[in-house]
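Annotated sample (chain length 489).
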Amino acid sequence: MLDDADRSLMLALTRYLEHANELAGRETRTELTPIGLRVRDHLGVDPQTVPVVTEEIADHRLVDADIALEELSGGDPDALVGIAGDDGRFHSSMSEFIAHAASRWSIGPVSYAARASGPDTTRRVVSFGLWLLTFDGTPLAVLQRAAKPEYGRSRATLEVLCADQDRATAFLGRLRTLMIERSVLRGQVLSFTRSEYGSDAGATFLRRPDVGAGDVVLPDGLLDEVVAHVVGIGEQRDALLAAGQHLKRGVLLYGPPGTGKTLTIRHLLTRTPAVTAVLLTGSSIAAIGAAAEIARTFQPSIVVLEDIDLVAMERSASPQPLLFEVLDALDGLDGDADVAFVMTTNRVSVLERALADRPGRVDLAVEVPLPALPERTRLFRRYAGSLPFSDQAIDDAAERAEDTTGSFAKELMRRSVLGAAMRGAEPADEDLAAALESLLTARSSLTRKLLGTRDGDEDQGVDVEDDESDDGGVWTAYAPLSDTMFTTD
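Output written by the structure step:
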């Protein structure tokens, strides 16, 4: 047992250790910088004792965050301050701005940057600045930073300091809500690009096209079918939801190049002026995850995936992970999401097996064929415009130019005008006939192919491929696309 002397000694030792720890804490605590002093005065507590909550956002959402924070500031001009210092700011943490032994960050001018807020508009946003706000009576400090890919920051960040963590959580929830309600992305046509540093540069704005139904030359009823599925479902959302039907839909437009698939999409975008649209093609299809997030957040929306066969034909990995990511994006939305996925392909057989193995991702497949004689005649008349060619000359040219597309018709009219100009006369039927004869010669075969012409024995955009299935059978793709895409032997 311990006697009184032992107890006294132990109590003295305990008090000594507590005192030593207190002195060590004082020595290791760094002196506050001028920024830290300003934050301390605003929060009413030592900011070194407050945890930092970091919210990362895509840089294309920085405008939305800027708008939301400005609204939360209540328009107070003193709510925003800058941080003066060298380029080390871009590497430093919020904690270092508050207290740093080797560098005394001070109050300085706010850093701004121009960001697109539409296809023809920009907004000056805070690229580096400190907001001193009050939310529901609780003071907060928010450091707003734009992405700096050259410094390794691929995303914008908001770093929040608040002594009450529940209030910090509520503040971020309100901020996210405002970013959606006030977003400049809603109802816009967007695409995705890569930055010069190899990272995702985020969404960019495109002008909404203006393509009327009369500009799209397709077989009778085809355009109406596509419009009814993509646009009509959205227009009847209330009736469909009341009947327990889903809104999410997938459309596949397939057929040879130059037959009007892209023009059909441009018409769909024209028909939906208030709908958010994301266009992905080529390497930008890798941004399908971000595109699906935008589509989900800003409904009603359309996601366009052009030339999706190029993703499926990528042989660098097998199975192709990007194609599966696209299919996962199709599958990842709730059925009541008012989102339309519209895909185009020149080689439908490349996709058939993947789509058939995941039924329901695409609920409408439409073949966009080479224009038949009635459509060719309409195309020739459209591109002839006000040129003084007789109806008979145009009809004869359309009949001879079998298996050609609108690109061929457009080039034919240009050559007709050029031929007339070279002989110093107005375009006439003889110029149209001469231009057509030149394009139909054997030496122009490659030119015809490049203009979308297909000879009768050439691939029409639908292949037949044999591949060993998992169970050892042979899968054979058939065209046109139908409910029974494959047979197994």
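Annotation: The mean pLDDT is 83.
Annotation: The chain is about 40% helix and 20% strand.
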